[in-house]
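User: Here's a protein and a ligand (adenosine monophosphate). What would the complex look like?
Assistant: Let me lay out the input and then the predicted complex.
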Amino acid sequence: MKIFVINAGSSSLKYQLIDMNTEKVMAKGLCERIGIEGSKLTHKPAGKDEYVVESPMPTHTAGIKLVLDALCDEKHGVISSLSDITAVGHRVVHGGEMFSKSTLITEEVKKALEVCSEFAPLHNPANLIGINAIEEAMGKDIPQVGVFDTAFHQTMPAKAFMYGIPYKYYENDKIRRYGFHGTSHRFVSAEAAKLLGKPIEELNIITVHLGNGSSVAAVKGGKCIDTSMGFTPLAGMLMGTRCGCVDPAIIPILMDKYNLSTKEINNIMNKESGVYGISGVSSDFRDLATAADEGNARAQLALDMFMYQTKSYIASYAAAMGGVDAIVFTAGVGENSPDVREGAIEGMEFMGIKMDKEKNKVRGTVDITAPESKTKVLVIPTNEELMIAKDTKDLVK
Ligand code: AMP
């Protein structure tokens, strides 16, 4: 069974074609600058050279048609015809309270996604366009599945997802914590249970997704009971360019003082803050590490804040779950930066958490626990595309 996985953004579209018999990626790629001048498709078939098509893509449908042509192309393709594709799985950012699981896309689901667009105005409309573009390019009969970033977190109890603002805003406007990166937290917590050889129902796991966007989740018995991101992916710890949680009173104060519009303050908090805003150097952790090594104090401060906030979430969730069996680091920074992992765990020996600094230098899926640690410390590469493909396979079977 071959599953086509799509992650559609407002002007981009990432894809993978996965053979579910082997769980291997047959081809992957990216359409960039959809609807803007200079559109480009970069297609990478497994074991073959990269293939770049520079061609106008006025719409997502045009982009998807180019991708489908590339997949079936005699030279650069990996399948002989589109009928080789059994189903399509879509990453959908926001499922609100309506979706606690992945779901087959129907006309009703599409309407519900439109309602959820209110919560993720930049992302959900693009996801919906991706779904419609597939219908146009492959016909209405191809099964499509929506896999939501928010779904895994729907098991949070009200005490974790409610905000301390008047209750009517929850009742009328559904303002609450939703959490994001759910597909990643679900994938790595399941992989951790496999690695530990125990049923996930018996484990307390803290999943630490550190990338450009970062979030931490408390996974008790396989169910999320708390997570750091909130109503939007701006909340929680500071990130590449996002501020994370700040005193909410700062926002109106800055708006008044500098005469900022809501758009401007949103831009500052989403694009000009985080480790980039603190360091003034970069949002990329490799650049930060280099600058800090060269004596840049603000780059070091940004890294220190990032590690400190990660640690605070880990400790808080360990308390929320009454103990923690495993801490799992994942995503770009979590998988690749031994220094950040070390800093986030440092000083937690009193809680029975200690890593082996030598093992911490190894790459890939690795157990970096020190022998005397009660809690396992693991590094597990995330694979959201495979998780989307697995859900799609399960739903169309
Ligand atoms: P993601 O959002 O999961 O794709 O993660 C992207 C981030 O991972 C980039 O901003 C980099 O800062 C970070 N990253 C990638 N490789 C490394 C590395 N070798 N060391 C530190 N950070 C890295």
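Summary: The radius of gyration is 21 Å.
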